């Protein structure tokens, strides 16, 4: 391949990455994950800081994925990363369910009046067990 072809491929890849990243950030904004967490924790005055951290996290996460950086944080760093990633994905999944009104519609359809917190906790536990099985049991 010559320089022109490589430049065009790099431009297309960069543009595609911008589009996907824009879609992900639009999705996070639509769900209102950051705003809801800020309001629930009483730290809404720091919303700009939260938004900047989401942007920086997206940039660093993409860079980390593309360049395969090695971070020498050991098992403790891996546990912290897994914990915070799980919290973020859980908040995103629950915000999506809330935006789409899945849980209220489901509870009305099947006529569930009591025990909804237990159903939500069961969904979360099932998700955690499924992720464990996929990563540690079947993923080897």
Radius of gyration, Cα only, in angstroms? 20 Å
Mean of residue pLDDT values: 81
Span between N and C termini?
A: 37 Å
Structural class: mainly alpha
List keywords for this structure.
single chain; 140 residues; mainly alpha; 6 helices; extended
Word description of this protein:
The chain has six helices and no strands. The longest helix is centred in the N-terminal third of the chain and has 29 residues, at about 5-30. The model has no long low-confidence stretch (mean pLDDT about 80). It is mainly α and about 140 residues long.
Summarize the structure.
This protein has 140 residues and is mainly α. It is built from six helices and no strands.
Topology:
Layout: H1 3-31, H2 33-41, H3 47-67, H4 74-99, H5 102-109, H6 116-137
């Amino acid at each position: 391949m010559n320089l022109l072809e490589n430049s065009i491929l790099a431009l297309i890849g960069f543009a595609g990455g911008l589009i996907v990243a824009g879609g992900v950030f639009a999705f996070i904004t639509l769900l209102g994950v950051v705003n809801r967490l800020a309001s629930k924790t009483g730290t809404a005055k720091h919303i700009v800081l939260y938004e900047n951290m989401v942007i920086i996290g997206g940039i660093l996460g993409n860079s980390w994925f593309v360049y395969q950086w090695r971070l020498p944080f050991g098992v403790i760093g891996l546990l912290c990363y897994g914990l915070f990633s799980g919290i973020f994905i859980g908040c995103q999944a629950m915000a999506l369910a809330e935006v789409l009104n899945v849980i209220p519609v489901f509870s009305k359809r099947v006529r569930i009046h009591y025990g909804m917190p237990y159903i939500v906790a069961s969904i979360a536990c099932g998700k955690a067990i499924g992720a464990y099985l996929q990563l540690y049991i079947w993923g080897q």
